[in-house]
Specification:
Order of helices and strands of chain A: EHEEEEHEH
Largest interface: A-B, 38 and 38 residues
Radius of gyration of chain A: 14 Å
Structural class of chain A: alpha+beta
Low-confidence stretches of chain A: 120-124
Helix content of chain A: 25-40%
Mean pLDDT of chain A: 91
Distance between the termini of chain A: 18 Å
Oligomer: homodimer
Chain lengths: ~120, ~120
């Protein structure tokens, strides 16, 4: 079953990261982030652009997705944590990713999606 | 090669959509949207939750990603179009998806990501 149509989308751009070419590290970070957020990974898809280059990828979740796009030459990573359902903890997921990549948050925004904007779908 | 670390992230929540269980339609919409945006699809991953239920998925791009999460029982779809590089046209991609799903935009936000916020990476 998909999660309810009420979501929190946490956007973060990170600087001064390491490991941004490391597919195994990035996959582990995405999976650990999902665990921390109490969400369920359906599949992980990562595309490395080549040696010393960035990675683009996503963890598809029963509760939406966590994505990453990395630019190792600049130490940058763009992170999206879009989670649905009242139990999902996007902040916990972001903390895991920041810790794994050793980065600093240069920009962040939390955006209510769908029913979360009106509160209608948040009622018990 | 990945696109430059300067991006536009266009978020849109759609209502009154049709075809939200239709994996083939959704894949076609994502691929057509990428074409309209002048970006390059690396792979498409779609997870149908079951008959008459929603779909969660992503088109991974050389220029970041387009994602969709759908709730057919409510006619809702959450769309993200995150594209990097000065030539990418996120608005064109969104127009394609709205047309394909027959929906109306209930919420939208365009967020500069990474270098696009400072303009630094937009210099010729």
């Amino acid at each position: 079953m998909p999660a309810p149509a009420t979501g929190l989308h946490l956007i973060a751009d990170l600087a001064d990261c390491h490991g941004l070419c490391d597919v195994a590290l990035i996959e582990a970070a995405l999976r650990e982030a999902a665990d921390a957020a109490h969400v369920h990974v359906l599949s992980v898809h990562l595309h490395p652009f080549g040696p010393e280059q960035g990675v683009t990828g996503v963890a598809l979740l029963a509760e939406s997705h966590i994505s990453i796009h990395s630019w190792p030459e600049e130490g940058l990573a763009a992170i999206d944590i879009f989670v649905c359902g009242p139990l999902a903890d996007a902040e916990a997921a972001l903390s895991v990713i920041v810790a794994r990549l050793g980065g600093a948050i240069r920009y962040r925004q939390a955006i209510p999606r769908l029913g979360a904007r009106t509160g209608a779908a948040l009622a018990p």
